[in-house]
């Protein structure tokens, strides 16, 4: 029988299991970022040259298209972001990729992959790389999975307007709609790519709450730009 003075007696847990640290809360939303495609070999047959490709990337039913009409050997950045809800221990994150190589007479189907990340794989948290190979291409798609933490950030109206102006210039035939319309377009884009919502507004800036890093990049890249005069 253990004596009270024994230094090595087993410690009895307090009644009700209290006294210890509460168990960590499991993450229920993850951010999946398609970082890059690493191509080690291509072959476009008698045509030669690089590949004209369209890739369809699906994460838990969400679809985004990546087009590269000059895909060559090497690492090419992509930068697409998805958010996947994992409400239960039995939930999973499914990443599906398929591709097409466009030719003048017919299109070739490129090798794709499907990977399912569940609780046993810690939902794939970390850096991942999946790919495929056939007679046309050998590649690896690099992506990361991380717990999506909701954050709050301030973005200036000037940055949003400059961001909208930059996107307009990239689109042939598009016309700027003025500062107010530019702000509205930029906010809608942030909403669609990270569920960012306006929680406060001033004459100078919006306070947004959401997921990801897009607003921070917008502020960093366009916050110092000169505001376009209408």
Please give a structural write-up.
There is one protein chain. By secondary structure, the chain is of the alpha+beta class. The protein folds into 2 domains: 29-147, Sandwich (Immunoglobulin-like), CATH 2.60.40; 151-222, no CATH class. The protein contains 3 helices and 11 strands; from the N terminus they run E-E-E-E-E-E-E-E-E-H-H-E-E-H. The strands form 3 sheets. It has a 4-stranded antiparallel beta sheet, with no helix packed on it. Strands 3-2-5-6 form a 4-stranded antiparallel beta sheet, with no helix packed on it. Strand 10 and strand 11 (205-210) form a beta hairpin. The longest helix is centred in the C-terminal third of the chain and has 14 residues, at 157-170. Residues 1-11 and 226-230 have low confidence and may be disordered.
């Amino acid at each position: 029988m253990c004596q009270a003075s024994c230094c090595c007696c087993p410690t009895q847990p307090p009644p009700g299991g209290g006294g210890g640290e509460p168990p960590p809360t499991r993450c229920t939303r993850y951010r999946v970022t398609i970082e890059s495609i690493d191509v080690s070999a291509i072959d476009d047959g008698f045509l030669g040259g690089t590949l004209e490709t369209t890739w369809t990337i699906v994460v838990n039913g969400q679809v985004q298209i990546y087009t590269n009409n000059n895909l060559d050997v090497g690492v090419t950045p992509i930068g697409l972001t998805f958010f996947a809800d994992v409400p239960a221990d039995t939930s999973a994150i499914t990443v599906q990729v398929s591709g097409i190589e466009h030719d003048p007479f017919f299109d070739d189907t490129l090798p794709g992959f499907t990977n399912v990340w569940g609780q046993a794989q810690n939902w794939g948290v970390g850096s991942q790389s999946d790919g495929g190979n056939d007679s046309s291409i050998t590649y690896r798609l690099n992506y990361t999975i991380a717990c999506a933490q909701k954050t709050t950030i301030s973005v200036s109206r000037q940055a949003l307007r400059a961001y909208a102006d930059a996107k307009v210039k990239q689109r042939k035939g598009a016309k700027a709609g003025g500062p107010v319309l530019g702000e509205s377009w930029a906010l809608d884009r942030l909403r669609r790519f990270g569920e960012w919502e306006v929680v406060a507004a001033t004459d100078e800036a919006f306070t947004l709450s959401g997921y990801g890093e897009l607003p921070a990049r917008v502020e960093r890249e366009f916050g110092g730009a000169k505001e376009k005069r209408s």
